[in-house]
Amino acid sequence: MFVGKPARKPALITLPLLAAALALLPCSPASAGDVAHPRVVSADPVATTPHVLDGIVNAFALIGGTVVVGGSFSEVRDAGASTRLPRSNLFAFDLATGKVDRRFAPRLDGPVYALAAGPDGSVYVGGAFVSAGGAPGRGLARLRLPDGSPVAGFSAPVNGGDVSSLVLHGGRLYVGGDFTGIGRTMRTALARVDAGTGAVDPAFTVTPGAGRGGELKIYAMAATRDRLAVDGSFTTLDGHRRPQVGLIDIAAARPSVTDWHTEAYAAACKEVFPTYVRGLDFSPDGHYFVIVTTGGAKGARKLCDSAARFETYSRGDAVRPTWVNHTGGDSLYSVAVTGSAVYVGGHQRWLNNPRGSDSAGPGAVARPGIGAIHPTTGKALAWNPTRDRGIGVKAFLAHKGGLLVGSDTTHLGHEYHARVGMFPLP
Predict the structure, then answer these.
(1) Which of 3, 100, 158, 409 is deepest in the core (most CB within 10 A)?
(2) Superfamily grouping for domain 15-424
(3) pTM (2 decimals)?
(4) Which helix (H) or strand (E) holds 89?
C-alpha cells in the first residue's frame, strides 16, 4: 500500500522544541486573526501532520492542543502509517504529535464548511449536514471533545440553506451562509446565536440584500474587538449599499452597519463570477483586514483574483484599498494575517502580477498554490514553499506554533502532505 514519500524533518525547528512550545498553549479556544507571529513561518512543513486520503479540507479549529479538521472526506491516517481510519467529514488530531484522535469520530452526513473553537472543550460545526454526532442538527451543531457527542442544551437547526462561516466572539456565535432561518426565527444569511443554547439573538438583525443574479450568501466573516467584517454575495446590509463587503459595529447594544463603505468590489469580473469575494481575516491588532478573491483576470483596475488590504477604521463612501496584490488570473480562497505576513492560498501561479492575464506579466513572481505578502508594502515575500495547486487552499489557521494549511491536494513544501500540513514558527 502506498503511504507517501516520508516527509523530511523541518530544518529550522525540532520536534521536541515544537512539542515544548505547544505545551505552553492555553487551553482556551484559538480564533483566526488573533494570533501574532514575530516572524514568517518556516517554508519546511513538519513531518507529523496526518493525511486526509480523499476529498477536501475546508476548516480548522484549535481547542487547547487538539486540532479539529472539517471538510468533505471519508478516510484519514497518521503520518508514516498505513492504517486507514474512517472519518465522516470531521476528525481531530494532536497538534504536537500529529496523531489522529481515536475517540473523536462523530458521523456527519454532509460536508463541513466552517468550524469555531468553543468553550469547555467543544467545537461548533457548520455545513450542509442534517445530523451530527448521532443527533439532529441541520447545518449547525456543537460537539464535545474528545468523544464527538452533541453538547446538551445547544440547538440551532438551520433552515433553507447551509452554513459557510462561523465566528465565536464575546460569548456569542456569529453564523453566515445562505440560509433563511435558524430554529423558528427568520434570519437571512446572517445571524447571531447564544453560544450556550443556540437561541437566536433578537438584538442582532443586520440583514444582507441579494447580490448580482439574485444570489445571497455570506462567504466569510472575521471579528475584532468591536467590528465584524462580512463578505459574500450581497449588495446591501440593512439597506445600506455595501457591494460584497461591509463592517458591523458589534460593540453596540444593538449592532448596526458602520459607515465604512467601499465600491472596490462593485465592478463585475467574468460573467461566471457575478460575485467574487471569498476569504478575509483581520490583523492581530484589528487595525486592518485583508480580502482575497476569485473572478478571472481583468487587469489592475479591478480586484478580481487579488488580495487587498483595507483599514478597519477608515470612514466614508470611498474607502480604497491600502494595497492590492494581483495573481494575474488565478483564484485566491483563503487568507491568514499574522502581523509579520499575509498568507494567501488558492490555485494561483503568481503574485505581484497586475498586468498578467493567465500569464506572467512584468514583475510577476512564481508562488504556486501558496504565498506570503508583506503587510505594509503589499509585495510578495521571499517565502515560497509551493504546493500542488488543485482547487486551492480552503483553510488556514495561525497558532502560536505555526500555520496550519488545508486543501484538496497531496504535496506541500515539496513533500507528501495529503490535504493537511503545518509550517512551524522558527
Answers:
(1) 158
(2) YVTN repeat-like/Quinoprotein amine dehydrogenase (2.130.10.10)
(3) 0.92
(4) none
